[in-house]
Amino acid sequence: MQINGWFLAIVLALVILWKIDLFATLLNLKSLGSEIPTAFRGLIDEDTYARSQDYTRAKALLGIGEGIVALVALFVFWWFGGFGWLDEKVRGYGQGPVVTGVLYIGALVVALRLLHLPFELYDTFGLEERFGFNRSTFAVWLGDLVKGTLLSVLLGVPLLAGLLWIFQTVPMAWLWGWLLVTAFSLVLAYLAPTWIMPLFNKFEPLEEGGLKRAIHEMSARCEFPLKEVSVMDGSKRSAKSNAFFTGFGKNKRIALFDTLIANHTEAELVGVLAHEIGHFKKKHIVKSLLAGTLTTGVMFFLLGLMLHNRALFDAFGVKETSVYVSLVLFGILMSPLSEVLSVAGNWMSRKHEFEADAYAAEVTGNAGAMSDALVKLSRDNLSNLTPHPFYVFLNYTHPPVVERIAALAKIR
């Protein structure tokens, strides 16, 4: 390992990034007020409000601890020459650059996964259990882990091998790598609702009745090509609620968590559905997809410039340059930039949520039902009702619920 300009710049960037995140988290904890926000008075009791604050504190402390462990582990592995040592080990098997690269990156992914596993276990069976959210058994959790790992291997290894081969042999590799990842992402998004999601959850058609009629009437009114409304057994793992839609073209499907249906009125559920349709009508999905694709293209272009950077390899103590180590080092190098890009993406996402709320209020003519749904979701999920603006700026993909309710009140 050589303490050069790259070494100092990356260490400084990672430490500053961690400190900014810690500062934002501490500000968020400090903003927890003792009084229920005006918009929620009479809608949430003191006990639930106190539990939501305790939940926010517990999640924040767990996140701080996990962040410290991850950062320290990276620095220790780096300082003691772990990146170079692992490279020598996998090269010793005498395989080609693609297989060697898959082994190298695979070993790092497994190590990182094992590092975070105890925190995930505690989060599910300690923290979430304590606040009454967890409904998963260890058998279900372990099954998810095994299935997720197998899927990662079956899907991730061919993709990684393809990228390594492209950067090893093809001119303008960054462009072809970008196209490969984009095509892979689109195919995966198309196949996921039919082939992947059912591996983890059961999706049953919504039973005939008033709710199904109301949903199809709303879809027809919005000219939304809804093919199927499904109920997902979210209660198998958590008491929390959600809804989402999937599919392309005329093959769109809405999935409602069973917990959402159990806790909300028909008008509220139709409002939630209209909100999801609003994302489609306002072309939020297309905009997000284009932004993500362009961002990926920029990242691949920068990667092409950084391949086989001798000074960067020296900073990490790796003797021989290679495509696969370049991918790993580039990922570490670009993590601060990725955080900046995520802040921009979060801002765009919050803007889209306001627009979808407004669309739902206008098309249903019932802004109150959407507000009531947000209140119940916040109450049932123990959401933080008083997040600090700086924390929201950095991390929130959805606006604070108090702001969403205030915006809906103006429409109403």
What is the fold's blueprint, element by element?
Layout: H1 5-30, H2 46-79, H3 82-91, H4 97-130, H5 138-169, H6 173-196, E1 203-205, H7 210-221, E2 226-232, E3 243-246, E4 252-257, H8 258-263, H9 266-281, H10 284-306, H11 310-315, H12 323-333, H13 335-364, H14 367-380, H15 389-395, H16 401-411
Parallel strand pairs: 2-4
Antiparallel strand pairs: 1-2, 3-4
Helix pairs in contact: 1-2, 1-15, 2-4, 3-4, 4-5, 4-12, 5-6, 6-10, 7-9, 9-13, 9-14, 10-13, 13-14, 13-16, 14-16
Report on this structure.
The protein has 16 helices and four strands. With 412 residues, the protein is mainly alpha-helical. The protein has a domain at 1-134 and 295-412. The protein has a four-stranded mixed sheet. Strand 3 (243-246) and strand 4 form a beta hairpin. Helix 1 packs antiparallel against helix 2, helix 4 packs parallel to helix 12 and helix 5 packs antiparallel against helix 6. The longest helix is centred in the first third of the chain and has 34 residues, at 46-79. The N and C termini lie far apart (62 Å). 24% of the residues are buried. The mean pLDDT is 91.
